[in-house]
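Hello,

Our lab assistant flagged a job as stuck in the queue for most of the afternoon. It eventually completed. Since we weren't sure the result was trustworthy after the delay, we are filing this so someone can double-check. Below is the sequence as submitted and the structure that was eventually returned. Let us know if re-running is recommended.
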Amino acid sequence: MAAKVLGVEADITCSDGINKAFVVNEGDLKHFFAIGNEWVEKNGVGDINVRCMALLKKSKDALVSDNIDTILKYSNPSKQEIYDISLQMCCKEKGRTFKVDFQSFEYPNLIQVTVGGANSVLAEKLFLRLMAELNETTQWYWFLACRRWLLKVSTWAFWIFLVLTVCYGTLSIVGTAYRNRQLRSQYEEWLKSNPPVAQEPVTTGIGEEKDVDSIKKMQPKVKKVNPVIQVWDCVRSIQFLAGMGIIIGGVSLVRITYYLFPKAIFEIGKGKQRHERLRAMRKWIAGLLTAIIVAGIVVPLMKEFVTKLFE
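-- returned structure --
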């Protein structure tokens, strides 16, 4: 079934999406708005219906108008940042539709394009042109920004670690109880074959008496099973702490990746300054990592060279 745009369904519809991180500026939005207007207004026949909409974070309100200027003039503060822009146009008389969605959610794609009309050749030609131009707005870090795979891997790793930890703690408690039971059984069997013999008390030089019981010396030391202590021993074990460190480090890395490599960046208003800061932070972090790697390679080589030089 063909996709509807503002209630209009075209005879021929070309629709697809791009699931890559993107950066859209004011010039891009003006350009795509002009392409859509030209498509639905061609030959100037029929009433044109246009809706430009931008959704804002932490706000139930949205910027909705029949012109792109309302969105372009928005200050775009960080507390009510734009996270979704939709350009929709149609002409019912000519059966032409046009829609471009820029989203920060992968449902179904970050960029979604729909072009409809009565002529399949013209609609497909415009659709392919739009897809090529929209691909130019995508960013190199899309494999980090489109994090469906990372979320799945992190979820599976967390549950596997949790199950292994519970199994380890349970087996530790059950194993201790089983060993205690075996020791008690062995001790009882030994008592049956070696009945205890009463002994005379031994008097020390200062008048104190000390019972010397060989049976007590041979009695096995049974470790009491305390679930709380067992769980605490499991929690403070190196394996558990290492696993928790990996999970916390992974979550922190994911959060940092979310911030440094967002899926959607709208360079509108204050969004330009935010994007400049992000790019500066990426350069600084990349430079720091490069310096660490180079130092890790160069310093040992220099040390070895100096050592051989003064031998």
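-- support follow-up --
The delay was a queue issue, not a problem with the job. The result is valid. The chain has nine helices and twelve strands. Residues 206-210 have pLDDT under 50 and may be disordered.
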